[in-house]
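Example 9 (inverse folding). The structure is encoded as follows.
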C-alpha cells in the first residue's frame, strides 16, 4: 500500500468525529426535492471546502438549482469524477418518524435523518476525500473533480445530465457515492420506459351497453392485459455482464426480502400506476388513459420496449395512442473496467473482506455517465430499508470507512 494512502487512512481514523460532524451538518439542511432549492446547503459546502483551500465553481441553471464543481490535480489523460446529489426526497409526515427527520445526530452507532443513506453519508465521504487529498495533489496523475448536483431525485436533467451536456466535466471514469452498502459495488442498472396509452371509444347512453357504443374502459382493460405479457419475456444479457447479473439475483432477493424477485434483473417489470377514464356512470366512456412504469433489464433497450408496445396496440388501430414521457436505456460498466477493479481492491483493503459487484433494479444519475461511454460505479454507505421511507439512518462507521475507499480509489486511479 502506498505510504500516502496509509497516512490518509490513519488521518481518517483520527478524524472520525469530524467526518461525522460534517454528515450531521449536511442532514440538518433539509434540501427536500421537491421543492429542490439547494441555496443553503450549497453555500455551506462551498464554504466548508474553501476552509481547506479548495475553490469551488457553482453553476445555477435555474434559481436555487445549484451544481457545485471542485477540482484537484492536473494532467489530461485520466479524469475522475466523484459525484453525489445534495437533494433528498421529502420526509412525509414527521409524526411517523421515531426521531426528528433532520436530526443528523449519531446515536447507538447510527447516523440519523433524511439522507443519511441516500445520500448525505456518501456525500460526506466524497467531500471529506477531497479535502483530505489537498496535501497530496502533486501525486495525482490526472484530475479528480467533485460534482455535487441538485436534482437526482427528480431525474437529474439540470444536474448531472446538464453539467455533462455543458461539458463542465469530461470524465474518463466516475464514482457515484449512492447507497449500496459497504461490500457491494453497483456496476449496472435497469432502464425506464414511462408513458401512457390513451384509449378512445364512442359514447352513448349507458342503458344500451354493451350493444351500442364502444367503451374506452373495456378496451383499455384488454390493452392492459396484453401489456403484462412483457413481464414474461426472458432477456438474454450481453456476454460480459451475464455472470454478474445471475449472481446479483440472490443478492437482491435478500435485499428486497422476497424469494424469486431476482427475475426482475432479466425480465421487464410493469406497473400501471394510474387509470383515468369515463365521465358519468350512465355514459359509455369515450376515453381512458393508462399510465405505466416499465423497467427494462440490461439487454432490452428502449427500442425493444417500444416495438413490443406497437405490436400490442396495432390491433386497436387509431383507438389506442402511445405517449411516452421517459425513455432510458439500461446501462452498465464492464466488470473489468479499471474503475471497477480499483474500487474492488480498495473495498477489500478497507473492509478486509471480499467485495461483490452487482447490477441494480432501479435507475440513477449513473445513466448520464454510462450512456456517454464513461465507466461508472455506485458505491456508498447504506441501510437500504429506510431509503425514501421513514427513520432513515446509516451506520456511522460506514461513512468513515467509505471515505477511506474514496480516497484510495482516487490515489490508485490517478497513479
Ligand atoms: Zn440517491
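The amino acid assigned to each position is listed next.
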Amino acid at each position: 500500500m502506498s505510504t500516502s494512502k496509509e497516512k490518509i487512512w490513519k488521518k481518517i481514523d483520527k478524524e472520525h468525529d469530524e467526518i461525522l460532524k460534517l454528515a450531521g451538518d449536511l442532514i440538518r439542511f433539509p434540501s427536500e426535492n421537491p421543492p429542490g432549492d439547494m441555496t443553503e446547503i450549497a453555500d455551506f459546502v462551498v464554504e466548508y471546502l474553501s476552509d481547506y483551500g479548495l475553490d469551488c465553481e457553482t453553476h445555477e441553471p435555474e434559481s436555487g438549482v445549484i451544481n457545485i464543481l471542485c477540482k484537484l490535480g492536473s494532467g489530461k489523460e485520466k479524469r475522475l469524477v466523484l459525484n453525489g446529489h445534495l437533494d433528498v426526497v421529502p420526509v412525509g409526515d414527521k409524526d411517523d418518524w421515531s426521531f426528528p427527520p433532520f436530526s443528523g445526530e449519531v446515536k447507538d452507532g447510527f447516523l440519523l435523518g433524511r439522507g443519511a443513506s441516500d445520500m448525505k453519508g456518501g456525500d460526506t465521504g466524497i467531500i471529506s476525500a477531497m479535502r483530505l487529498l489537498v496535501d497530496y495533489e502533486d501525486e495525482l496523475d490526472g484530475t479528480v473533480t467533485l460534482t455535487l448536483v441538485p436534482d437526482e431525485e427528480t431525474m437529474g436533467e439540470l444536474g448531472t445530465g446538464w453539467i455533462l451536456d455543458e461539458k463542465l466535466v469530461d470524465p474518463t471514469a466516475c464514482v457515484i457515492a449512492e447507497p449500496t452498502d459497504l461490500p457491494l459495488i453497483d456496476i449496472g442498472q435497469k432502464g425506464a420506459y414511462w408513458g401512457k396509452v390513451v384509449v378512445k371509444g364512442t359514447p352513448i347512453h349507458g342503458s344500451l351497453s354493451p350493444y351500442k357504443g364502444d367503451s374506452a374502459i373495456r378496451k383499455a382493460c384488454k390493452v392492459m392485459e396484453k401489456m403484462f405479457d412483457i413481464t414474461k419475456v426472458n432477456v438474454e444479457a450481453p456476454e460480459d455482464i451475464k455472470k454478474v447479473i445471475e449472481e446479483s439475483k440472490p443478492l437482491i432477493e435478500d435485499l428486497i426480502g422476497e424469494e424469486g424477485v431476482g427475475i426482475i434483473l432479466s425480465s421487464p417489470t410493469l406497473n400501471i400506476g394510474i387509470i383515468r377514464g369515463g365521465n358519468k356512470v350512465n355514459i359509455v366512456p369515450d376515453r381512458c388513459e393508462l399510465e405505466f412504469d416499465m423497467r427494462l433489464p440490461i439487454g432490452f433497450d428502449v427500442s425493444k420496449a417500444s416495438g413490443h408496445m406497437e405490436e400490442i396496440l396495432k390491433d386497436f388501430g387509431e383507438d389506442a395512442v402511445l405517449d411516452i414521457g421517459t425513455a432510458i436505456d439500461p446501462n452498465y460498466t464492464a466488470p473489468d473496467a479499471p474503475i471497477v477493479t480499483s474500487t474492488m481492491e480498495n473495498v477489500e483493503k478497507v473492509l478486509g473482506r471480499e467485495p461483490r459487484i452487482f447490477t441494480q433494479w432501479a435507475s440513477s444519475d449513473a445513466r448520464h455517465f454510462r450512456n456517454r461511454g464513461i465507466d461508472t460505479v455506485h458505491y456508498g454507505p447504506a441501510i437500504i430499508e429506510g431509503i425514501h421511507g421513514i427513520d432513515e439512518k446509516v451506520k456511522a462507521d460506514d461513512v468513515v470507512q467509505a471515505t477511506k475507499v474514496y480516497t484510495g480509489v482516487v490515489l490508485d486511479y490517478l497513479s
